[in-house]
Amino acid sequence: MTIENKIIVSGFIPTTIVGILFAIGAAIFTDAQAGFSAIAGTVLTLVFFVFGQYVIGRVLLTKPELGLGVALVVYFTQLIVLLVLMRLLRDAAFLDGRSFGLAIVASTLAWTSGLVWVMATHKNVVIEPVTPQALNLSKDD
Predict the structure, then answer these.
(1) Structure pTM?
(2) Which of 15, 65, 77, 91 is deepest in the core (most CB within 10 A)?
(3) Which whole-number Å values give the CA distances from 7 to 34, 52, 99, in the listed order?
(4) Which residue spans traverse the membrane (predicted)?
Protein backbone atom coordinates (compact mmCIF):
# COMPACT_ATOMS: atom_id res chain seq x y z
CA MET A 1 0.00 0.00 0.00
CA THR A 2 1.42 3.38 -0.97
CA ILE A 3 1.69 6.20 1.51
CA GLU A 4 -1.01 8.14 -0.35
CA ASN A 5 -3.46 5.27 0.08
CA LYS A 6 -2.38 4.81 3.71
CA ILE A 7 -3.10 8.47 4.40
CA ILE A 8 -6.57 8.33 2.88
CA VAL A 9 -7.45 5.08 4.65
CA SER A 10 -6.02 6.30 7.97
CA GLY A 11 -8.25 9.35 7.81
CA PHE A 12 -11.28 7.69 6.25
CA ILE A 13 -11.74 4.84 8.72
CA PRO A 14 -11.71 6.80 12.01
CA THR A 15 -13.78 9.59 10.47
CA THR A 16 -16.41 7.12 9.29
CA ILE A 17 -16.51 5.39 12.67
CA VAL A 18 -16.81 8.67 14.56
CA GLY A 19 -19.49 9.90 12.16
CA ILE A 20 -21.58 6.74 12.46
CA LEU A 21 -21.33 6.71 16.25
CA PHE A 22 -22.18 10.40 16.39
CA ALA A 23 -25.17 9.91 14.08
CA ILE A 24 -26.47 7.02 16.18
CA GLY A 25 -26.06 9.05 19.35
CA ALA A 26 -27.74 12.10 17.84
CA ALA A 27 -30.65 9.99 16.59
CA ILE A 28 -31.10 8.29 19.96
CA PHE A 29 -30.80 11.38 22.16
CA THR A 30 -32.63 13.89 19.95
CA ASP A 31 -34.42 12.80 16.77
CA ALA A 32 -33.92 11.23 13.35
CA GLN A 33 -33.28 14.61 11.72
CA ALA A 34 -30.28 15.09 14.01
CA GLY A 35 -28.96 11.67 12.98
CA PHE A 36 -29.32 12.50 9.29
CA SER A 37 -27.68 15.87 9.87
CA ALA A 38 -24.73 14.18 11.57
CA ILE A 39 -24.37 11.81 8.62
CA ALA A 40 -24.51 14.77 6.22
CA GLY A 41 -21.79 16.57 8.18
CA THR A 42 -19.60 13.48 8.21
CA VAL A 43 -20.04 12.84 4.48
CA LEU A 44 -19.31 16.49 3.69
CA THR A 45 -16.14 16.35 5.77
CA LEU A 46 -15.02 13.10 4.13
CA VAL A 47 -15.56 14.50 0.65
CA PHE A 48 -13.58 17.64 1.49
CA PHE A 49 -10.64 15.82 3.02
CA VAL A 50 -10.41 13.03 0.43
CA PHE A 51 -10.50 15.59 -2.37
CA GLY A 52 -7.87 17.68 -0.59
CA GLN A 53 -5.64 14.65 -0.19
CA TYR A 54 -6.04 13.93 -3.90
CA VAL A 55 -4.92 17.48 -4.73
CA ILE A 56 -1.91 17.20 -2.43
CA GLY A 57 -0.98 13.85 -3.97
CA ARG A 58 -1.09 15.30 -7.50
CA VAL A 59 1.13 18.20 -6.46
CA LEU A 60 3.61 15.87 -4.76
CA LEU A 61 3.91 13.83 -7.95
CA THR A 62 4.68 16.83 -10.13
CA LYS A 63 6.45 19.27 -7.78
CA PRO A 64 7.41 17.65 -4.47
CA GLU A 65 9.20 20.78 -3.28
CA LEU A 66 5.83 22.54 -3.00
CA GLY A 67 4.27 19.74 -0.93
CA LEU A 68 4.27 21.29 2.53
CA GLY A 69 3.08 24.68 1.36
CA VAL A 70 0.28 23.21 -0.72
CA ALA A 71 -0.72 20.89 2.14
CA LEU A 72 -1.03 23.83 4.53
CA VAL A 73 -3.01 25.92 2.05
CA VAL A 74 -5.35 23.03 1.23
CA TYR A 75 -5.90 22.14 4.90
CA PHE A 76 -6.63 25.69 6.02
CA THR A 77 -8.87 26.27 3.00
CA GLN A 78 -10.81 23.13 3.88
CA LEU A 79 -11.24 24.29 7.47
CA ILE A 80 -12.39 27.76 6.43
CA VAL A 81 -14.88 26.43 3.86
CA LEU A 82 -16.25 23.91 6.38
CA LEU A 83 -16.66 26.69 8.96
CA VAL A 84 -18.47 28.87 6.41
CA LEU A 85 -20.76 25.97 5.48
CA MET A 86 -21.48 25.30 9.15
CA ARG A 87 -22.37 28.95 9.59
CA LEU A 88 -24.59 29.07 6.48
CA LEU A 89 -26.42 25.80 7.15
CA ARG A 90 -26.90 26.08 10.91
CA ASP A 91 -30.42 27.51 10.52
CA ALA A 92 -31.48 25.40 7.52
CA ALA A 93 -34.91 23.83 7.94
CA PHE A 94 -33.81 20.44 6.60
CA LEU A 95 -30.83 20.11 8.99
CA ASP A 96 -30.32 20.09 12.72
CA GLY A 97 -27.61 22.74 12.89
CA ARG A 98 -26.08 21.61 16.17
CA SER A 99 -25.68 17.97 15.11
CA PHE A 100 -24.43 19.00 11.67
CA GLY A 101 -21.78 21.32 13.11
CA LEU A 102 -20.66 18.98 15.87
CA ALA A 103 -20.37 16.11 13.38
CA ILE A 104 -18.15 18.26 11.17
CA VAL A 105 -15.93 19.18 14.12
CA ALA A 106 -15.73 15.58 15.36
CA SER A 107 -15.03 14.27 11.85
CA THR A 108 -12.32 16.86 11.29
CA LEU A 109 -10.63 15.90 14.56
CA ALA A 110 -10.87 12.20 13.67
CA TRP A 111 -9.40 12.76 10.19
CA THR A 112 -6.55 14.87 11.56
CA SER A 113 -5.81 12.36 14.33
CA GLY A 114 -5.68 9.51 11.81
CA LEU A 115 -3.29 11.47 9.60
CA VAL A 116 -1.02 12.39 12.49
CA TRP A 117 -0.95 8.76 13.64
CA VAL A 118 -0.01 7.35 10.23
CA MET A 119 2.63 10.02 9.64
CA ALA A 120 4.16 9.37 13.05
CA THR A 121 4.32 5.60 12.57
CA HIS A 122 5.18 5.42 8.85
CA LYS A 123 8.75 4.40 8.13
CA ASN A 124 10.27 5.64 4.88
CA VAL A 125 12.83 3.36 3.31
CA VAL A 126 15.90 5.37 2.35
CA ILE A 127 18.49 3.77 0.12
CA GLU A 128 21.75 5.64 -0.08
CA PRO A 129 24.21 4.74 -2.82
CA VAL A 130 27.43 3.25 -1.56
CA THR A 131 30.73 4.49 -2.94
CA PRO A 132 33.98 2.52 -2.87
CA GLN A 133 35.42 5.09 -0.45
CA ALA A 134 32.61 4.40 1.99
CA LEU A 135 33.49 0.70 1.95
CA ASN A 136 37.23 1.44 2.28
CA LEU A 137 37.93 -0.65 -0.80
CA SER A 138 40.76 0.01 -3.15
CA LYS A 139 40.58 -0.45 -6.91
CA ASP A 140 42.62 -3.68 -6.82
CA ASP A 141 40.13 -5.51 -4.53
Answers:
(1) 0.79
(2) 15
(3) 30, 12, 27
(4) 7-29, 35-56, 68-88, 100-120
